[in-house]
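User: Show me a protein chain along with its predicted structure.
Assistant: Here is one chain, sequence first, then structure tokens.
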Amino acid sequence: MKDVGNAECQLALAEELGIPRNSLLKLLHDGSAMAALCSDLKLRDDFRVEGSPTWIFNEGRQKLYGNVGYKILEANIRELLERPEGLASWC
């Protein structure tokens, strides 16, 4: 069993995945990793993401949450990609 809360364990796992240790440490030390996390948390709050998985479409006007079938996702994505310019989406 691995303690993924331990920094050394995290770095070892990153190396196993081919992520260079020094690149990861640079992001942790210069604050980039924390800034990305804070940005994600702000987006979570802005879009009112309640859990996982959550799919946000159409500049945040549409949200699918939970056990959503792939046919529903496909229909929504097709509608957004194929709708004529200037017309409202059916989704």
